[in-house]
Design a protein that fits this description.
Structural class: alpha/beta
CATH architecture of the largest domain: 3 Solenoid
Number of helices: 3
Strand content: 25-35%
Helix content: 10-25%
Strand order of the largest sheet: 8-11-14-17-20-25-28-31-34-37-39
Number of strands: 39
Mean pLDDT: 97
CATH topology of the largest domain: UDP N-Acetylglucosamine Acyltransferase, domain 1
Radius of gyration: 26 Å
């Protein structure tokens, strides 16, 4: 969808340096862009491409406007402004309202006339679907689920019974929400399943990635608060609570009854132990293992980055020697104290 550069500047709140009548049709990277494209500079590692870009305009901050040889949209946060420009120039196609003839809809459902239910969907009894909601093809919506207005479930999403989804939430293909938590009681070497009687509550403006799983609570609900962003293939166990506007990258696992605060950032592949609390505004780097509660905001890491195999083997040998070294050091300190 084409817009003039002036229209684009007003939409993202930018100071325009260039021709406001220039027509912009798409977004593209600095190296790939051509006439009619708008690009952006959000990191200095790409500054070398700014002088040679063929884009009609570039979104950047004031510090780099002097390096820009094409029209510039000067903003405080180029990445954020790029996101808004991309959404304006590349709006998503929305399906027409209505229920596809191949969908199966149970008794007592309340589906707003402006909502869309796609092909091969199964909507069980007592489900409520709000205005402008979109249920993609082959989704399964369990009994008594509630889906708020403007929310979108893409293909093959499963909501188990009683799940509640807020407004404007986006759920990507293959996500499963409300599956049973891993609740088991030992019985003389065997296991007895503990009924999972809680549900899942998802807030407004949440995004849940492809094949992510959020388990229902054992007694109380699992809760994902407003604005949370979950990447692909994340496991959220039963009774977890994730605070508003926290973002979690792919392949992270959060064990049962963990509490994660607001505005946290958790890197990919991290592990969060059960029954611990993480306060607001914590950053956990990728592949970290969190086994104890974190009570102060800050950046937390664990694990070792990859390195040459020979060096890694030498370090492992030294790690195995640490107990002996510590014992010898303690004995030496004791002998010095005795003198």
């Amino acid at each position: 969808m084409a817009h003039t550069l002036g229209e684009l500047a007003r939409h993202i709140g930018a100071e325009l340096q260039g021709d406001p009548s220039c027509l912009i049709r798409a977004v593209a990277g600095l190296q790939q862009a051509g006439p009619g494209d708008v690009s952006f500079l959000a990191h200095t590692r790409y500054l070398k491409h700014l002088a040679t870009t063929r884009a009609s305009a570039v979104i950047l901050d004031a510090a780099h406007r002097a390096h820009c040889r094409v029209s510039a949209l000067v903003v405080e946060n180029p990445l954020l402004s790029y996101a808004r420009a991309a959404a304006l120039l590349h709006p998503e196609a929305m399906p027409a309202p209505g229920i596809h003839p191949s969908a199966a809809v149970g008794a007592g459902c309340r589906i707003h006339a402006s909502a869309s239910v796609g092909a091969q969907c199964v909507v069980e009894q007592g489900v409520e679907i709000g205005a402008d909601a979109v249920i993609g093809p082959a989704c399964v919506i369990g009994r008594d689920c509630v889906i708020g207005e403007g929310s979108r479930l893409l293909a093959q999403v499963t909501l188990c019974h009683g799940t509640r989804i807020g407004k404007r939430t986006l759920i990507h293909p293959g996500a499963v929400i409300g599956s049973d938590g891993f609740g088991l009681a030992p019985d003389r070497g065997a296991w007895v399943k503990i009924p999972q009687l809680g549900g899942v509550r998802i807030g407004d403006d949440v995004e849940i990635g492809a094949n992510t799983t959020i388990d229902r609570g054992a007694l109380e609900d699992t809760v994902i608060e407003d604005g949370v962003k979950l990447d692909n293939q994340i496991q959220i166990a039963h009774n977890v609570r994730i605070g508003a506007h926290t973002a979690i990258a792919a392949c992270t696992g959060v064990a049962g009854s963990a509490r994660i605060g607001k505005r946290c950032q958790i890197g990919g592949g991290a592990g969060i132990a059960g029954h611990i609390e993480i306060t607001d505004d914590v950053i956990i780097t990728g592949m970290a293992m969190v086994t104890k509660s974190i009570t102060r905001p800050g950046v937390y890491s664990s694990g070792m980055p990859a390195q040459e195999n020979a060096l890694w083997h030498r370090q492992v040998v030294r790690l195995r020697q640490l107990d002996g070294i510590a014992e010898r050091l303690k004995n030496l300190e004791n002998r010095l104290q005795e003198k």
